[in-house]
Amino acid sequence: MEIFDFTECEYSNRNGSYGGAAGDKDGIIINGEPWIAKYPKSNEGMAKSDKLSSTTQTPLSEFIGSHIYGILGYPVHETLLGIRKGFVVVACKDFCDEKTRLLEMRTLKNIHIPEMNQKFQLDLHETNDDHLVDLNELFVHFELNPEISKIKGVSERFWDQIVIDGLIGNNDRNNGNWGILSCGDKRELAPIFDNGACFYPKKSTLAIEQLLKLPEADQARNNANIQEPFTLDGEHHLNYKFMLDLDETKIPASQLKLLKASIVKNTQLVESKLDDIVAFIKLIPNEYNGFEIITEPRREYYIKSFITRFENVLKEKSNS
User: Fold this and answer.
1) Digits of tens for pLDDT over the chain (320 positions)?
2) Which residues make Cβ contacts (< 8 Å) with residue 15, sequence separation at least 6?
3) Using N-to-C axis directions, what is the helix angle for 58-71 and 154-168, rounded to 10°?
4) Phi, psi of 183 (to 5 degrees)
5) What distance in Å separates the CA atoms of residue 151 and residue 140, rounded to the nearest whole number?
6) CA 79, CA 262: separation in Å to the nearest integer?
7) b (16+ CB within 10 A) / e for 154-166
8) Which residues pair with 36 in a beta bridge?
9) Of 226, 272, 268, 306, residue with least CA distance to 71
10) Are 187 and 148 in contact (CB under 8 A)?
11) Do 320 and 267 meet the contact criterion of CB atoms below 8 Å apart?
């Protein structure tokens, strides 16, 4: 697997147009095309056991999570792992241009429709938190929002992300981390992007080693309890198993049908590609030109946690 040196990459004319709280970003040019170089975020303020690492592992997480989506055949932004300004960074190919822009789900939700407002007042529990997604509210937008409801496959994409994000431990698929591409009158789902919260990017190697020492039952329980950025009927930060166990008492029948279909489809898909996913993670080099890329304990736990969630949560649910 090739690791790249982005030191000499020039800034793109889109530099400065990228934001977000997950670390600094540069717009750069690679082979004449615009990319986004994402830097790790400082670990300041993390738990004591995690502060042994000065920065998070978000570039590595973005790289691995995105490639897993790609291995499974999902449209995902292209990523490269490399070095820039003394850091391990991930370069993400810019899927927008001068004519095409990304509309995040939180932007698409900013619309006034009397029928929606009436339903919101009756059914919804406001969270006042941009990082939490109220499922009832989202389902109403899928049905009534004129920008969202006409996008082919939007509900299916949501549930597929639920299933795969849970496997890779991504706990940050909020309304700013998925959306659509707009080009004139054309609207289509954007590639899957912003996967930097998967695979425990804030945990140091020491914290990972401690997790590996836990009894197998405790590891399995921890892996199943990944907290998701969703709220439903006043319950916040629902975990992966809870999301897969949703039933007709919790969500509309139309959405439950899509959830069940996604569980079955992705169980078969992951099983067919599991060896490829493990092989990909094993190919990541430990270091590049003196920069640590991945430690062996981290590699071991990434593989182990993925397989555990697949076998003990997704596959078990598919067979039930």
Assistant:
1) 999 999 999 999 876 555 555 578 999 999 999 999 999 987 665 544 454 566 789 999 999 999 999 999 999 999 999 999 999 999 999 999 889 999 999 888 877 767 666 665 544 444 444 578 889 889 989 998 888 988 999 999 999 999 999 999 999 999 989 999 999 889 999 999 999 999 989 999 999 999 999 888 887 777 777 888 899 988 887 899 999 999 999 999 999 999 999 999 999 999 999 999 999 999 999 999 999 999 999 999 999 999 999 999 999 999 98
2) 26, 27, 28
3) 120
4) -140, 100
5) 14
6) 25
7) bbebbbbbbbbbb
8) 27, 92
9) 272
10) no
11) no
Taking the model in full, what pTM does it have?
A: 0.92
- Cα–Cα dist 12/19, whole Å: 15
- Residue given tokens 């793109």 in the structure block: 12
- Which residue do the tokens 């020039």 mark? 10
CB 184 within 8 A of CB 98: no
- Looking up tokens 């995902």 gives 76
* Lateral strand order in the sheet of 179-183: 101-104, 179-183, 186-189
Distant-in-sequence contacts of 85-88, Cβ < 8 A, 24+ apart:
85/7, 85/39, 87/39, 87/40, 87/55, 87/59, 88/40, 88/59, 88/60, 88/291, 88/292, 88/293
Which of these, 178, 142, 155, lies nearest to 69 by C-alpha position? 178
The number of residues making up the chain comes to 320
- Cross-strand bridge partners of residue 179: 104
For residue 150, give the nearest of 111, 121, 192 by alpha carbon: 111
Angle at 305 between CA 243 and CA 296, to 5 degrees: 155
**Two structure tokens written together for 112:** 């006034």
Could you tell me the two tokens for 23?
A: 């670390």
> What one-letter code names the amino acid at 98?
E
